[in-house]
Amino acid sequence: MSRFATEHGRQLALDFARAPSGGTFLKRQYVAFPFHITRPFDDGDGLLVILQSLGAGLLQGDRFAAGIVAGEGTAVTIRTQGATIAHAMPADDALQHVRLDAHPGSRLVWQPRPLVLFPGARVRTSLEVVVHDGADVMWCDAFLPHDAGEPGKHFASLQSETVVRADDGTLLVLDRVRTSGKDLACSGVAVHGTIGMVGGIAAAPGLADTLSVAVALSGAYAGVSSLPGECGLLVRVLADDGAMLARAVEDVVAAVAQHPRSVL
Predict the structure, then answer these.
(1) Rounded to a whole number, what is the largest CA-CA distance in the chain?
(2) How many CA atoms, within 13 angstroms, populate the side-chain half-sphere of residue 245?
(3) Domain positions in the chain
(4) What are 240-251's pLDDT values in tens digits?
């Protein structure tokens, strides 16, 4: 149970709806510590919301949850202002859960900055995506270690799970990552990112090739693969540092937006 104020167990709940004019507006919001949002603004392609944190990052015992609902016909992009730092956690772990609910005809992009794992950090993350017929969803999930001036020390553990379901409960995607700082140190590449997309956005002819080229130009290593049942695409990114990862993510998002017959 969270030690902070919640609504139905969540510190953040955002509900977007389509206005009579055809635009998107924030119909309802519940925002409690550590979250904060500024006024949403129209970026020319939908509504953009910058999600900020008033806290110091993730500490042991933290239990944070967020829910985003993109109503029918809406276009929403959620970005975080900065990376999330996970501090040392000698006695307990920290948990982050995000649920994305995209209704028919909506477009929802979840684009947080990476999770930065300090020595001793123990983090569990969970992303739940519910996609209705005719909806398009893109999500990003990335992490990197940082020794915080303690060379040779590593984060303790990271468990990450992404579950994508149709609105009738049918499982479309299940993606799990479990690793530690020591494991990453042995691999030689410590900065990891995943960009996933489901719906019509992933069905555009030639998009997988376009994404491969976009990531290659950023200097990162990447692989693009189809999700089960051809329901979408998944991009795995390995980078030398956080800046290279950020470029790769931005290049993929831009490539999807500019690709012919893509709705993003």
Answers:
(1) 57
(2) 27
(3) 12-258
(4) 888 999 999 999
